[in-house]
Amino acid sequence: MIPRYSRPEMVAIWSPETRFRIWFEIEAYACDALAELGVIPKEAAKTIWEKGGAAKFDVEAIDEIERVTKHDVIAFLTHLSEFVGPDARFIHQGMTSSDVLDTCFAVQLTRASDILLADIDGLLAALKRRAFEHKDTVTVGRSHGIHAEPTTFGVKLAQAYAEFSRCRERLVHAREDIATCAISGAVGTFANIDPYVEEHVAKKLGLKPEPVSTQVIPRDRHAMFFTTLGVIASSIERLATEIRHLQRTEVLEAEEYFSPGQKGSSAMPHKRNPVLTENLTGLARMVRSFALPAMENVALWHERDISHSSVERMIGPDATVTLDFALSRLTSVIDRLLVYPDNMLKNMNKFRGLVHSQRVLLALTQAGVSREDAYRLVQRNAMKVWEQGADFLEELLADREVTSALPEADIREKFDLGYHTKHVDTIFKRVFGEA
Amino acid sequence: MIPRYSRPEMVAIWSPETRFRIWFEIEAYACDALAELGVIPKEAAKTIWEKGGAAKFDVEAIDEIERVTKHDVIAFLTHLSEFVGPDARFIHQGMTSSDVLDTCFAVQLTRASDILLADIDGLLAALKRRAFEHKDTVTVGRSHGIHAEPTTFGVKLAQAYAEFSRCRERLVHAREDIATCAISGAVGTFANIDPYVEEHVAKKLGLKPEPVSTQVIPRDRHAMFFTTLGVIASSIERLATEIRHLQRTEVLEAEEYFSPGQKGSSAMPHKRNPVLTENLTGLARMVRSFALPAMENVALWHERDISHSSVERMIGPDATVTLDFALSRLTSVIDRLLVYPDNMLKNMNKFRGLVHSQRVLLALTQAGVSREDAYRLVQRNAMKVWEQGADFLEELLADREVTSALPEADIREKFDLGYHTKHVDTIFKRVFGEA
Amino acid sequence: MIPRYSRPEMVAIWSPETRFRIWFEIEAYACDALAELGVIPKEAAKTIWEKGGAAKFDVEAIDEIERVTKHDVIAFLTHLSEFVGPDARFIHQGMTSSDVLDTCFAVQLTRASDILLADIDGLLAALKRRAFEHKDTVTVGRSHGIHAEPTTFGVKLAQAYAEFSRCRERLVHAREDIATCAISGAVGTFANIDPYVEEHVAKKLGLKPEPVSTQVIPRDRHAMFFTTLGVIASSIERLATEIRHLQRTEVLEAEEYFSPGQKGSSAMPHKRNPVLTENLTGLARMVRSFALPAMENVALWHERDISHSSVERMIGPDATVTLDFALSRLTSVIDRLLVYPDNMLKNMNKFRGLVHSQRVLLALTQAGVSREDAYRLVQRNAMKVWEQGADFLEELLADREVTSALPEADIREKFDLGYHTKHVDTIFKRVFGEA
Amino acid sequence: MIPRYSRPEMVAIWSPETRFRIWFEIEAYACDALAELGVIPKEAAKTIWEKGGAAKFDVEAIDEIERVTKHDVIAFLTHLSEFVGPDARFIHQGMTSSDVLDTCFAVQLTRASDILLADIDGLLAALKRRAFEHKDTVTVGRSHGIHAEPTTFGVKLAQAYAEFSRCRERLVHAREDIATCAISGAVGTFANIDPYVEEHVAKKLGLKPEPVSTQVIPRDRHAMFFTTLGVIASSIERLATEIRHLQRTEVLEAEEYFSPGQKGSSAMPHKRNPVLTENLTGLARMVRSFALPAMENVALWHERDISHSSVERMIGPDATVTLDFALSRLTSVIDRLLVYPDNMLKNMNKFRGLVHSQRVLLALTQAGVSREDAYRLVQRNAMKVWEQGADFLEELLADREVTSALPEADIREKFDLGYHTKHVDTIFKRVFGEA
Questions:
Q1: What's the alpha-carbon Rg for chain A, to the nearest Å?
Q2: Any idea where the Adenylosuccinate lyase C-terminal domain is (chains A, B, C, D) (predicted)?
Q3: Which CATH architecture describes the domain A95-256+269-349?
Q4: Cα–Cα distance for residue pair C368/C363, rounded to 1 Å
Q5: Which stretches in chain D have pLDDT values below 50?
Q6: Residues on chain C touching B188 (C-beta within 8 angstroms)
Q7: Neighbours of chain D (3+ CB pairs under 8 A)
Q8: C265 catalytically annotated
């Protein structure tokens, strides 16, 4: 997470101020429950909310205490007690620092998820708008970077829409996975704290109680969360790569918006480069890489060790802030993407008629030619187009073996572009529920 | 995937014979639908099932053809046509090889998932049985590898049970994600094949139609699948690590079953090593590593390229076969685990009474001592136990500052073991629905 | 490692037969040294070489013994003793199985390295030949996939040559790193075996003695080895990606050789796809992924655990076999690459004159225009070329602000192609030592 | 990189101020060479050094310009020109922004390497000191976490010393790999800038000229650099894991220094946890993860794309700062490690005499018993020690089959501890060159 690739709303989730506020709320809600159970005085719980709730925590001061205690939660509690006064001794009763840390992390990750879900919704909206705009914009479909058969630019965007819809669903699952609360005390036995406290705090924070924690919330949950972010990042890379390809000088079927005053190169003033999608490609690599330490974090020793902590202090902010930025940047790229339908047609016709080779193949087999022979016939004419720049239709019409199997009119009919787009509506209905 | 770490049922899914059989079925089901639509003769579809269904595909012969065509599906179709005869020209009409390959991969991965789900069920059963067996077997809970507070061995196993229940649910999601069928032709436009064919084949094979494919089934699905396997592997590593720790010479609270005739070391005949769980740790590293190329596979170029193929030819079998083997091995380890409750108690009492330090701390704060002072009082007595092997209770009773705050009887009461296990039933009910 | 992507010479290194032969040699060389030291009878060492050396080890039989002992080296020694007779008891004196396993692994990895080094040499030769062939073949250099300035195809290949020269040097380092021999007995103390034995065996096998082993050869060595393979794989991916780009339909400046009889697509007979380089891209992903478990293997517990073993049984063969295949395939791609200089020129001139924008910029600044103004002047004319297909030179000549700063002849002179290739010889001399 | 895990000297390398200063120096040195070549006025070069060298670059102002130009180097040059005045137009002549960025990155990485090398030297010194201190401190060697045979604590540290010596050498190689300078202009052809400029700047900055760049310095160099850091991090993890094991409550052979005032747990005042080495374990996971995007960065498109940039803006600082912090923390842990030789002996004798099993095995084979029988005899007595807590020597002496092969005195002699440490000097000489 570096300022260059960060947005303030997501960054705020990870600030010390936010963290301390969440810690306070966890402790204070726990006090409410403890007071209800008669473990601590009701008046104390009230005082804690009033004095602690009004406190402005001093990050520097807390850091100062931590330098002595070498324990962050103890440092915070010591600082908090200065505001609360003698009733502070009722705070954290029977709890362990992981109760606070892990539940806080759950709150932060669910908030981060909510922003990411909104990001995906924004991207989906942009993709849908542009997909319908270009539903009928014919372009060549490519496999292996080689012209295959016609499709439409709208279908390309529909594919991205479907992919990010899946990503959304995965993120919903991942959010559910990490949205648990643990207030179960040392080694998770509830020896010193009643399970009711956990239920109460969970409810107040919009989480579910962790069925069985071992002092910590088990890290398979977080592994699933961060690997899911890695998969979403990979989908971003896919769409970014598509745009980078389309903007290549020789292709130029689409282009990132180039703003007035923008400079593409310090040396070459003619340059207009797909720098945003290249940047997204790199950011995707980063988010993906965070999946690994998250998975390595799962095998904590016995009931818990603290090796996961340094990892999460880094990837918690890094993964969510970077993905938020990337989703938002991608949305803006899609929203403002310059699309060049004329170039799409020009490119498709570069090798004249070649994209219709399959239809001729199928027609030949339908006319009784074996698949192997039909393939050979079509391929030998197609190669002349590749190698000598010939016109495919003309070559076919001049090939006796072809014309003896298929009448000329039938051959010509196979070069109809509309044939390839007749199911675009079907696809749109499947993806968007409408066409 | 190497024989040493493979089980036959999972290996069979990935054999050439199985693959060709699935390819055949995809083609034959597609022919049924094409015949229904009147695209090919009904009789042809029947012949294809009869002659192709009875054929014994010759893997060597197909490989031989591929050496010329450099295309696996074409090689197969050529071979198939030798069995089917002239009607073979009706096979693969309007389809592209990815329709066959990707749908086949989906069938293989769903079958693999079913085996893995059964594996997890077996593991869950073993964990549940041993958890209830040791529900009340008291053992020390450890954080940072250091004694913390008492828990039971059953609670440890309940934690593993809960973790693998989550893994099961994740695998169900992952299975759903890859269980789609694409029969959409070149670049996925259905230009040469009616969407009905896809629906028919999907239904017959227990898959869902891919809403929008681009010749290939999008690889974000597979990325999610293989990262999910990586997370499951990480959970295996966690449990394996726990057992390795428990078997350490100084701990020896549990031990892998050591069979008659087994030798632990070529040099040292006294050795009994946790080799199975160490092996599981290594296997987990492998399964986890496959998540990466799976994520890198997502960003195929344009409608598709073939870079994913070599990766999937390797990780398809490797990840599923290795995980199947690992789950099965772990189940057997749990099933036959030797558990030593006496050693558990002996270890817990190594530092006499130390595990009760929190209770004394809480009692002091309840008695009006500030949290900071209480901590200091308890810590100074605890350190004597660590450093000089003293008895914690005796030290506390000899500490005037402590006894002036708490009567002796109260202090003694804090050393009751039962206090720590009183919520084991609650935990079991949460995890197993029963206690 | 799957047959499809394997070459026999490398596969042979990893066969059980090879492994058992190396094990035998390690034991027999150790016996020579032990006999020299008087620990075992000279006659016994002789018998071991004679009878063991002539033995044909039965892999199945050894596996059968292992099923009982659950220990591979013990199974082998038991089998070996059947050939050697009573003198077999002198084998493995004071050694531990890791001495055999780790030293054998070192022998296998050094042999694998030698093949890989030869592979790289082959690739370098191909790159050099084609680089000199196309030293003066002008083509456009591209940054961001966008035309930048002219270069030559030979320079592109020189870059690849330099990169693989570095890879070669890295592999030499990596080979050195793993070429050590450990015969140090249990926990590496030489308690039961004199260090001389290690020195002797190391010398015979072309290895260096491991300065301090802990029963195992430390795994940081292997981590360095496999990460180095991952970097080499990444360089393969770079060159493969370049070729994939050059073969795109709209670019078509180079093309993988397409053999007679080859079929590019089951559906579209016109297709010629860069399937080899796409395949290399996927293989690179695999080799790269093996770096991870290799790094995770480093932190073995205490003197050693066996978690590394399952990983190495898989990645030892997988990484070396796959990389060998990939290097060989890449060499063949380069050797037979079809290069289209005419298309290179045609592409370069697609946006007429645009590639000369920097020279005009520099000339303007040289003529006294500020950098900011010069940039603005050049950019505004360049944009007309991008957007309206104008001719860059004509636009400049029609721009008063430009011509007032630079005489027409000077502007025209900036469009000289030769200007860009004047240092090609310098570059070739740096890379190849000749031009 | 987060403040918690950062040290100021390394952080300073990555500050905007440092970066802009290096950019300036690259530009100014290039001007010197250009002036020498007569391309720009000598006076201009002098002015640039004087006015630019005295300038205090305003990071905020530069960022402001970048928001318009969307190009960081152009923003900097614009800002610089305000200080330099009209001569600023001679800056950056014939250069491209990558010349500045990549050469600057090389300078930053070499400076970072120098700090890391000093860190390793510090760690080596600490390891050596403690190794000699504990050269003869007998402790049990463990394989699989199970007691094996005696060794000394000094030998353990010697192993770590040897490992970090290798890491040091690898880092020297890695530093060399990235210490190159590219001043070759757009697409690296030197069209607009003489190779002499590159040579001059390289020399001034302590770098070597990049033999052939393609506008960018090839990223295989950086991949090798960051993977090397990943391997070093893995070695840190190994040593950290060893200490975590030794500090386990049941082992307690060594312990991280616990400072006065430190608190191990908010709930349990008795706790002393190995939090520093656990923290190092997590940091190692992070540094290791950065190897991946670094390898994915290699395959830039054509002469270059900018996808590597966002990755490097993150991992450049993150990897070096985190590794610097980790090495320094590990050094401090080793320096102050509390070592408990008494506990080491107590642990070794936990299973009475078991660690001598191999010697008895060897003695039996020497006495003519077959290896298989000897193994059986020793194992059956050893198992009584494991399972019933018997004394190994007594059991052997009571076993007729054993005593009939070996006289009692011979058996007793096998229990001599000194036998195992007789080669410690040899090992120390190998590792440290002295003993």
A1: 30
A2: 352-432
A3: Up-down Bundle (1.20)
A4: 9
A5: none
A6: none
A7: A, B, C
A8: yes
* Cβ-defined contact of C270 to A354 (cutoff 8 Å): yes
Each residue's pLDDT tens digit, B134-183: 999 999 999 999 999 999 999 999 999 999 999 999 999 999 999 999 99
Task: Please answer yes or no on whether A306 and D279 come within 8 Å at the CB atom.
Answer: yes
Tell me how far apart the alpha carbons of residues C382 and C222 are, in angstroms, rounded to a whole number: 53
- Domain C96-345, CATH homologous superfamily name and number: Fumarase/aspartase (Central domain) (1.20.200.10)
Query: pTM here?
Result: 0.96
D242 contacts on C by Cβ (under 8 Å): 301-302
| Whether pLDDT at A264 is above 80 | no
D96-190+206-350 fold: Fumarase C; Chain A, domain 2 (1.20.200)
- To the nearest whole Å, the CA of A140 is away from the closest chain D CA by 22
Substitution target in C140, C146, C149, C356 with the highest count of A β-carbons within 10 Å is: C146
Q: Classify domain C354-414 at the CATH topology level.
A: Ribonucleotide Reductase Protein R1; domain 1 (1.10.40)
Q: What is the pLDDT of residues C112-170, one digit of tens each?
A: 999 999 999 999 999 999 999 999 999 999 999 999 999 999 999 999 999 999 999 99
- Fill in the amino acid letter for B261: G
CATH 1.20.200.10 domain residues, chain D: 96-190+206-350
CB contact under 8 A, C292 and B292: yes
A151 vs B141, B187, B420: nearest CB: B187
Among A111-120, B28-37, B270-279, C65-74, whose mean pLDDT is lowest? C65-74
Cβ atoms of C280 and C331 within 8 Å: the answer is no
Query: Where in chain C is CATH 1.20.200.10?
Result: 96-345
The size of the C-D interface in CB pairs under 8 A is 306
| Average per-residue pLDDT for chain D | 95
Q: Which residues, in sequence order, are CB contacts of A36 under 8 Å at separation 6+?
A: A42, A196, A200
pLDDT in tens, B295-308: 999 999 999 999 99
Question: Where residue B68 falls among pLDDT bands split at 50, 70, 90?
Answer: confident
Q: How confident is the model at residue A32 (pLDDT cuts 50, 70, 90)?
A: very high
Residues B225-253: pLDDT tens digits? 999 999 999 999 999 999 999 999 999 99
Check C141 against D188: CB less than 8 A apart: yes
For the domain spanning C1-93, the CATH number is 1.10.275.10
Tell whether the model's pLDDT for residue A158 goes beyond 80. yes
**How far is residue B199's CA from residue D419's CA, in Å, rounded to a whole number?**
76
Which secondary structure element, helix H or strand E, spans residue B148, and what is its range? strand B146-152
> D127 in helix, strand or coil?
helix
Find which of B70, B227, B415, B422 to mutate to test the A interface (most A CBs within 10 Å of its CB): B227
Q: What is the pLDDT averaged over residues A110-124? A: 98
Which phi and psi angles does A249 have, rounded to 5°? -50, -45
pLDDT of B45 > 80? The answer is yes
Give span(s): CATH 1.20.200.10, chain B. 98-185+212-258+265-350
Q: A98 to chain D: nearest residue by CA?
A: D266
What pLDDT does residue A1 have? 75
Which architecture does CATH list for B98-185+212-258+265-350? Up-down Bundle (1.20)
Tell me the chain A residues in contact with residue B234 when contact means C-beta distances shorter than 8 Å.
Answer: 220, 223, 295-296, 298-299
Instruction: Give catalytic residue positions of D.
Output: 144, 265
Question: Would you state the pLDDT for residue C287?
Answer: 98
Cβ distance B251 to D247 less than 8 Å, yes or no, reads: no
Query: From start to end of B123-228, where are the E strands?
Result: 138-143, 146-152, 180-181, 208-209
Q: Write out chain A residues lying below 8 Å of D243, CB-based.
A: none
Catalytic residue of the set B71, B173, B265, B310 = B265
C42 token code pair: 């000279």
> At B338, is the secondary structure helix, strand, or coil?
strand
Tokens representing A370 are 């074996």
B3, B5, B8, B14 alpha-carbon torsion, rounded to 10°:
-80
Is A265 part of the annotated catalytic residue set? yes
Choose, out of C347, C371, C422, the residue to mutate when testing the contact with D (most D CBs < 10 Å): C371
Ranges of CATH 1.10.275.10 domains, chain B: 1-93
Give the amino acid at D198. E
Nearest one of D132, D121, D133 to D165, comparing CA atoms: D121
